[in-house]
Queue: 4 jobs
Job 1
Amino acid sequence: MADAKIRLFLEQPLGAGQPVPLTQEQAHYLFGVMRLGKGAGVLVFNGRDGEWRAEVAEAGKRGGLLVCAEQTAPLRVPPDLWLMFAPIKKARTDFIVEKAAEMGVRRILPVQTRFTNSERIRQDRLQAHAVEAAEQCGGTFVPEVCDLVALDRLLADWPAERRIMWCDENMLGARAGLLAGAGETEPRGFEEAPKSPSPGPWAVLIGPEGGFAEAEQARLRRMEQVVPVSLGPRILRADTAAVAALTLWQSVLGDWV
Amino acid sequence: MADAKIRLFLEQPLGAGQPVPLTQEQAHYLFGVMRLGKGAGVLVFNGRDGEWRAEVAEAGKRGGLLVCAEQTAPLRVPPDLWLMFAPIKKARTDFIVEKAAEMGVRRILPVQTRFTNSERIRQDRLQAHAVEAAEQCGGTFVPEVCDLVALDRLLADWPAERRIMWCDENMLGARAGLLAGAGETEPRGFEEAPKSPSPGPWAVLIGPEGGFAEAEQARLRRMEQVVPVSLGPRILRADTAAVAALTLWQSVLGDWV
């Protein structure tokens, strides 16, 4: 089999010897755009069965067939972490979704706050961005991108056990705040922190560029699940804050440890 | 004085009562583009004297005069941290410079590695990006963007006391690696780490998308200043890696503590 350099996300089941009939779109991409021929290798994943090396068995204009040869990577599911953010300008929203997929989150929730400008998002387009990011970064999992939801509504039904890392200004030191919120009553060394196998369900909340409204802040402060965390002494743009917050969470409580 | 919402970086000295003669370009921006008139307020900084609220004393087409009223923020110099990265596609290189300015570094060094595609950068354009990022994120300091330099040459003259956080795959856990490299012989808790006032001079090194060549890796491994650090189990794009690495450094050794 030729060296497989293309990584393709698809919905079909994958397994040893499993034939994978291709949709017209997939066939167009592999045979029309990427010019693969019969016998060529391709890496495929579906977010459930890990990554597989597959071989082109039939190549046509409107369809084709891959056959899975061997698993090249197991499914790696990220920790149970959600990212909530207020959509901003298109390019930066795309960026946040791409980065969240790279950094390892389970679910991406665009939220509408009082100071969020955008009233709608293209969920399908953002989901496609998450898929593309996973294809490019070697991921075997694709986070689910949800539709835009009002923060107020989301918080009204918030699960009791899911903690929220609220990235806010003028808070405790970055890691100390996160550790304290993770149940550490007094600052302990990181190496002693309750670092896994599972930190439990969490979400990271990034504010809109204009910050949260007074009422939103008050509500967040009242919620027991909320852990306010500082992202340093400088003001970060929302897209920077998203990557920084996910790094902090992953390196303190997640799978970067 | 009207509410000052515009933040402007300029080279002129700033101080109480200090008159600031404007260049033609600055006058064009303030009076032509932003339509400020006499008496209007503007926030100015020069990277040395903190942030000042100034008032328009004279407004002309080819020049004008501001007068500094009061200091609104002291100069905040970031820790002695450099960011070295291999330039990538234009938009992502711009992004790295913008993020580095937001996250707090002293100097930005684009480096040419064996697997770096670009042979040249527009230093002036990148420096302007750093200025713009500082203007927008409320910074009072602007990192210096250097010209492209070959990694080999840079490392040949590397200062003995400046440690390098080398972001590489298959390394120690993110923070454990950094702490160990910071002189911690055995893993200690973060709270006990030597966290300030100064961690000493450091640099963060982000590889090109294709990774480092064998010879480069061998050289880095031989250098005593080099501290290899993992950025988690997923492959990160260079721009994501830059923000993640700076977050890690700032939250463990820098001024986010």
Job 2
Amino acid sequence: MNFKIRPATKEDCKGISRMIMELAVYVKMPDQVKISHEELERDGFCQNPFFECLVAEVPEENKSTEGFTLVGYAFYFYTYSTWKGRSVYLEDLYVMPEFRGNGIGKGLLSKVAEVGKKKQCVRLQMSVFDWNTPSRDFYAAKGAQDLTESEGWHFIRFDNQSLDNLANEAPKD
Amino acid sequence: MNFKIRPATKEDCKGISRMIMELAVYVKMPDQVKISHEELERDGFCQNPFFECLVAEVPEENKSTEGFTLVGYAFYFYTYSTWKGRSVYLEDLYVMPEFRGNGIGKGLLSKVAEVGKKKQCVRLQMSVFDWNTPSRDFYAAKGAQDLTESEGWHFIRFDNQSLDNLANEAPKD
């Protein structure tokens, strides 16, 4: 299938927002999505953007059954290891179900790796659910390591009240 | 004990670099550190910095047995959730052993939470080793959730040859 991968523009944010929700439905957490396309426009297309995004687009004649031509996206940002330096973190990788099996996911992933290498990143990282065997197998087949299994890394989060409590206890300048 | 927490300057990078190595020794991976203070200077103090850092400083009269006044640091950057938006990620939190028990670690953590809230971040995240019970207990006592335990998140990485292979397979524009 003919498809093109290109950097997202501000005008793509509605389409990205639709696919963010589709992915959340796939991972069984649709009620977790609190972000709007206006917030994506604000945070991704400003002076120091919080993220970057690639989209996969098909020609009009291959559009989805619902009429969409944006059929996948890779949402990423830059992080930093105090041991190794610049890294790129892939937050989301998604291809609409009816377009899978055409190399689009692989193309998006490789393109993020290429963008990262151009920025002198030495790592590409991401997180997956333990039950998400298709994704884990997809990454493993391409040479990724599972660091939770091999080194015992756990993922920790403060949010809501626990984040407010912490911030309120900060020493005064 | 008297201490001050302030944003790091370029001149602090040598001291931060020393403490990065001390922390790597503590987590039993000193041979993993490949980053120099010159790289920290370049990547943290440029137009679009890859990270931010807070340092904890004690007065000259309380300096360490080896003569250091920088006794702790918190190294962080901004990430982004496609469900919740702006987030802050704490890569390293470290206090020199002889200065522990004085609230410096707690002060650094709270200050990162405060900085994050000012930037409208809704999450503060980090990773810890499963064997690092002191750190896991420290974060849990302050209200953090372990997402690897509660939701099954695994941490995945491409680096070295697997990253090069991916990048080389990227579709041409």
Job 3
Amino acid sequence: MNIAFIGFGKVASTLVQLVNSPDITFLTSHEKRSKDTMDLIKESEVKDCPTLKEAVENADIVISANSPSNAVEAALEYGKYCKGIFLDLNNISPKTALKINDLTENFVDGAIIGKIDSKNPILYLSGKNADKLLFLNDFLSVKVISDNVGDASNLKLLRSSYTKTLSVLLIESYRLAESLNLEDEFFDILKLTEGDDFKEKSLSRINNTLKSTKRKSEELEEILDCYNAQDLEMVGAALKKLRQFEH
Amino acid sequence: MNIAFIGFGKVASTLVQLVNSPDITFLTSHEKRSKDTMDLIKESEVKDCPTLKEAVENADIVISANSPSNAVEAALEYGKYCKGIFLDLNNISPKTALKINDLTENFVDGAIIGKIDSKNPILYLSGKNADKLLFLNDFLSVKVISDNVGDASNLKLLRSSYTKTLSVLLIESYRLAESLNLEDEFFDILKLTEGDDFKEKSLSRINNTLKSTKRKSEELEEILDCYNAQDLEMVGAALKKLRQFEH
């Protein structure tokens, strides 16, 4: 079986390492790629085809793992050459997933939960052909949600809306506690209901959020753009608050 | 040692059961009490004095466990007869704690975290005389926060602002998940980062909040009233959202 990658970054190179089988050959191409990507291709167990078109044409599965902004373009340019399954792992919105579904045959909507190079990444899939990718369970956790393209992307956004808004709530509560000189007690008292790792987890969430307020804001904007923003007052407030921290 | 109760409801009767020592006598009075309270007094190991004034005058520790709205009045009426420590357990705001501090000698600000009749209630105390109540550690968990009257009440409000706002965020996220037919997957996916009991805990928080939206709204209002509401956008959004559920 041949698996081709459109885009060859961290997701692709990690999948090549994880999905280690004599029956599987990975394909990609250095065509129009940066020096860093070419280095990564050379270091990985992947066949470097002269063109990406050739890699895609010869693949049973095509994995688009580029960037959200290039996802539609990649599907538009290479989807037509794909005879097998077209799996998108670009962190796209449900709307974009439906768009790509129109541009490709046998589309599968995919979302990686957790970092791909973390201990236990989980690959959530949805779409009519998602079941055909269940063999990947031999190499990493794969969960098929439903036949509906968009559900994997929806689930990723749902999770994101909860965790990112929670992080902003943590920032607000922590700052109030700090202003009262009660930050240690705040963590102690909440440990009782939120678990022993509450302090460690909360500080890590607060720091991660404050480190990249612009990106987090954009992600919250995408959520409000994707769903009925009127019903998402908490996400709206989190976005408003986060913007105050942007420079 | 004599401990007198102003107000004799669940908190007082549970404390009488917990603080079980031959060296301690509990006092209260049926004066101006309802039939239910009089029944509770009869069932409890407490000495029923002819008047509350007499109970308070003879006490080393007076515990005011009435209701937030009666806390100041109780202190005003009986504080002057109290020769020992005056401990308030009325779930009052930090502002009210400072007010009562002016009305009584040897005031201790107290907050019970968790329900008093739960498995492990914790009594948080603050104020110059709080240390003198550490002997209660023989009977239940007692933590002294600081010398500052108001800190125990602040900590209770801080906790409340986080947990109640979180509950509203859970309602929002859950409803979005429901609208996408992904509520089971929402819980499954968040279990990975939020702990195995995430679903059970979240549903219980959602139900508790929706069962008493009016009371929860009032508690959020109190928080906004007590601190700089402008800095508490998340609490503000939670209050706004909760009010939509009120009938």
Job 4
Amino acid sequence: MTKTTFTPRDAICGSAEETTDFAPLFNQDGLIPVVATDKATGQLLMLAYMNAEALAKTIETGEAWYWSRSRSELWRKGASSGNTQTVVEIRTDCDQDAIELIVEQTGPACHTKRKSCFYRIVKNDGGEFSLQKVEDA
Amino acid sequence: MTKTTFTPRDAICGSAEETTDFAPLFNQDGLIPVVATDKATGQLLMLAYMNAEALAKTIETGEAWYWSRSRSELWRKGASSGNTQTVVEIRTDCDQDAIELIVEQTGPACHTKRKSCFYRIVKNDGGEFSLQKVEDA
């Protein structure tokens, strides 16, 4: 068990926007969406979720931990693939219901071996949709 | 009512990762998280949510529409502030449960008048957390 705890949401002083208290807002499933971006390039790498324990472990270890909704378990990013994320900076947004992780990404971020998970563009051909893969994503 | 519809999730051919069918996965509330990034700089601007209608309106109009969870209504980004988002590209991720909007942002993206909603860094002083504002965010 981790000892890291965050400010309870109902205990923040002032508005969520301007406070310097860190009071992350987890959703009804106890999760918060996390956007990982690349330190070197600023590129959007992936979107995943953390519960409070994953966020605490990320802060304590300096490596990205997430909550797998499909497997219902904590996972250390890259634990099996080796494609770890070293956390350079953690940010939160105006209403503190999302997290940005600025990371040094080892290898590709996506499990499909691509640098980013966002490797397909939505194309609209008169209401007919398709996805076009980006070669260098 | 919009006429735009997407491929039903259970009708996609092959895996969500490699298909060229656009079959966005909305959560149990009918929402999908959307990350807006700046076309010119790649900077992460904000994270918000769309329902199917907001996504359809975004595609049809070329301007970003979201679903406000607090107000339970569709909103066109910038409708009151003027800080609209012109959509340059729409992407989806490997498992098609998140959207990236690459936008030309008019004015600041954040309602606090900052360029990005992610303007605070989480600081950890021996287990005591605080948020430090980034001056140029």
